[in-house]
Amino acid sequence: MKYCIIIPDGGADLPLEELGGKTPLEAANLPNLRALAAAGRIGCAVTTPHGFEAGSDVCSMSLLGYDPTKYHTGRAPLEAAALGLTPGPRDWIFRLNLVTTGQPGTDVQGLMLDHSAGAITDREARALVHDLLAHWKAHAPDALRGIEITPGVSYRNILVDSGGRDYSDLTTTPPHAIPGERWDAHLPKGRAAAMLRALIDLSSDFLPRHEINLARVEQGLRPATLAWMWGQGTRPTVPSFHARFGVKGAMITSVDLLAGIASYIGWDRLNVPGLTSYHDTDYAAQGLATVAALASYDLVCTHVEAPDEASHQADWRTKVASLEAIDEHIVGPVARAMRGEWSAAANADAPLLARDATTKADASRSPSADEPGWRILVMPDHFTLCSTRKHDPTPVPFLMAGSWVRSAVQREFTEEAAAASDLIIDPGHDLMEYFLFSGLLRANPAR
């Protein structure tokens, strides 16, 4: 069997006035997804466990078959793995965002305006972090004891504290969860919070005056005015995907979070030139790379960040466009390749997407997972609402199609249709077992 998981990050949404009461999924022109849905199964999954926030770390871990209540220790440790960092078991790891906040004397003074500092470039972000670290060392040397910062992609950075501080009671807030709110109401809280709050305060004095930010303002771009720490945790212990499911996997993504999860579960990360977190990404290159990777791996997961970033900017037009691009350049090529290369021998008179079904002679038995065949899972990790610019824990829609996948009822791949389905996966991490093996005979049940 060959498997492909396509994640349109934050692709699910609520109906929007601007779209005539439709969601972006409903409004977008998605012929390939519609065709898969007509021959597949539609359902919804609870990817945000009770007591957790609907973050990409929690929801992606759940989507990939790992129970966050067992394996999640924080978002930052997952991203650190993608950067090749090897913190000690007692080191604390933070995500450090460069964000845009409302400046004194403006009508948005003190508000969190943009969690991504206007999608700041890697080059600009790295220079700012370098100079900010020097500023911190000059003005708060004791606070910097044991601290190292590693730049990631764009506004994303990783801070590792190996100085022996205890953050076990610390509470932090993701900046993308408080757009338009006063950021000082969401500063870190807890015994060790004073040091982090001091560093944030120092960054608010230094960054707005930096020449890079002054140049960005002149260009009409949002400056990085604050360093915001959140997502803390220690290094988790996670069993490999192959040990659990007997399947060899790979990840294609532009973001460190998904790459970090892939690292922990033993998947390879496949780098594709031209990928970004935004709508300027090379969708076609990602589709071609996904198809090529399927020749070498049992399962390829291909993740696209663009719908989520568009939602965080309340940009419904770009969200619709990104979903359409995913359908055209990734879903379409992957579905065509899988049907052509890995379909099981089947009744030639069957509909195109059902030709992988068992023949009448085989209908009474369960096929082996090792037999030729294919399956595709298309699923956002969580809702991201254009109306609020925030994530939402509503159970997400999923589409499963391919070999030996049947449904008595045809449904559209939409939020409403998924919620009306009788296929509800709760907890969401159980979906992976269903996707990989439902209707199949596992040759080695101990996997």
Describe this protein's structure.
The chain is of the alpha/beta class and about 450 residues long. Strands 9-8-10-1-11-14-2-15 form an eight-stranded mixed β-sheet, with helices on both faces. Strands 3, 4, 5, 6 and 7 form a five-stranded antiparallel β-sheet that branches. The relative contact order is 0.23. About 5% of the residues have low confidence.
**Main sheet record:** 8 strands, mixed
Order of helices and strands: EHHEHHHEEHEEHHEHEHEHEHHEEEEHEH
Helix residue percentage: 25-40%
**How many helical stretches?**
15
What is the terminal-to-terminal distance? 16 Å
Content of β-strand: 15-25%
Structure summary, number of beta strands? 15
Shape: globular
- The secondary-structure class comes to alpha/beta
Overall pLDDT: 92
Strand order of the largest sheet: 9-8-10-1-11-14-2-15
Note the quaternary state here.
single chain
Poorly predicted runs are 345-364
Radius of gyration from the CA trace? 23 Å
